[in-house]
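ok posting inputs for the adenosine monophosphate job
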Amino acid sequence: MSKVVILLGPPGAGKGTQASRLSAALGLPHVSTGDLFRENRAKGTPLGKKAQEFMDQGMLVPDELVLDMLFDRVGRPDCARGYLLDGFPRTLPQAEALAKRLSPSTSVCALNLSVRDAALLDRITGRRTCPSCGNVHHVKNAPPKVEGQCDRCGTALVQRPDDTEAVFRERLAVYRKQTQPLEGYYRARGLLQDVPGDDAPDRVFEALQKLSTAPACEGARA
Ligand code: AMP
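and the output
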């Protein structure tokens, strides 16, 4: 039986950071559609170029571009036992397309991180990302040992073009309108668990790990 864990939450809720840790703890690959788009952009693929204009304005990439890319990724052998989704689904049609694709024996668990708006803004605008290994630092909350350099691989850290305040506000508005309805979608199916995301990262991780291995998360169907 395979297992799909979905991390939901607004931009800056800590999905990426928590997903890397949770993926290692659960032994399931971390599949981030944002990372897949950024990889495509870095390689200059036609998909990456199409996605760029939407991403840089804080808008969602159209569903058809997301779905092909995502289903291609989760169709690879490493995802046969399941996977951890970060940043997908972000719209109701994406959630419906995922549900249609999963076999009835797959258990699905959606973990919803909630964080106050003011904290989200601070986390996003202070975030610095490693363009090489994807490691994430924060200028105040998780500064690198050497200023401006990734602790993991030493590459110069960058601010993502969509991590500025103006683009963050647009991303938050898009989240409220298009992605937040997914809470209702998964709650109605008995698949949603709420996790307060304001706590220290280690406490949030413990809560996520506990919930994702709890019986309520096993055997639940999409
Ligand atoms: P993230 O790294 O998850 O914050 O994603 C960065 C950007 O990639 C988003 O603001 C969107 O423009 C795009 N993106 C990532 N995942 C999706 C998705 N599931 N649907 C539509 N757009 C997405």
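notes: Residues 165-179 form the longest helix (15 residues). The chain has a mean pLDDT of 93.
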